[in-house]
Amino acid sequence: MQKVWLDGELIDAEKAKVGILTHSLQYGSGIFEGIRSYSIKKNSRTAIFRLDDHIKRFFRSAKIYSMDLNYNETQIADAIIALLKANKLSSSYIRPFSFYNDQNIGLSVANKKISVFIAAVDFGNYFINKENGIKCKISSWRRFNSSIVPIQAKASGNYINSILCSIEAKHAGYDEAIILSNNGYVAEGPGENIFIVKDNELITPDNSSDILLGITRDSVIKIAKSNGLTVTERKIHREELYTSDEAFFTGTAAEITPIVNIDGINISKGIAGEITKSISRRFYDIVSGKDEDFKDWLTIV
Questions:
Q1: Is domain 134-287 annotated with CATH 3.20.10.10?
Q2: CA distances from 274 to 77, 200, 277, 280 (A)
Q3: Catalytic residue selected from 63, 135, 154, 269
Q4: What single DSSP character describes residue 36?
Q5: Which of 130, 137, 214, 260 could bridge 193 with an S-S bond, Cβ 3.0-4.6 Å?
Q6: Which CATH architecture has domain 3-122?
Q7: pTM above 0.85?
Q8: For this structure, is 154 an active site residue?
Q9: pLDDT tens digits, one per residue of 30-81
């Protein structure tokens, strides 16, 4: 029986239940994280990728929304490790989630119970065509900005914007969307950060482009610099996507996914580019414990 962690206890997943009128189900008022664990074949262990950084962001999201989780960072980290051990998971997707566990109708969150839930599930490729690269459509919907909702918090409600963009792209026959900021610059994917390569320079939207500062994004920047590449964070015009030499998404679920076509225009001749592949190889060496330079990114279970 699969176990989950709810409010300090490991319990059977089927016993983890909340009411149908739960506030966060009605209004999207929860916060969450996405974390990966990987199998380390050389010693048959499990490694959680950048656990501390993900937990720090989880608590930053809680602070932005004035949510007191009633746990500290160490307790949540220990809970995640205990959960993986209980379920005997190696390669998995881990979802910490905090929500208002209250069934009263109304927007107010005053005096509502805050629960913390953690699940971990087996997880493969997020995109079916990941190895060969995916096709993307620039969405007609725009990314909201921090004058509307806090972009730097991973809040459940934020992702309805992403869902609309993704639905539109898939209805048009594409694998995923690319979203522009309200001022027309490239922002990100529905659940991914984006990079382009131009003349051997790696370019990604900066913090002013209405993006979530992804942890995989940060990892790729560090990997690329370690590989000797120039990395620039700046605003990216839409047309720069079409004329880029390579493009790819990054994210906990997406990992590193080549983008080979945007709005019907082939990127890198419709195949994954060499710089994308070199960064991807280094990334998988790191998460599988083969690369000693970034071993501090792994929490061994």
A1: yes
A2: 36, 10, 5, 10
A3: 154
A4: E
A5: 214
A6: 2-Layer Sandwich (3.30)
A7: yes
A8: yes
A9: 999 999 999 997 777 899 999 999 999 999 999 999 999 999 999 999 999 9
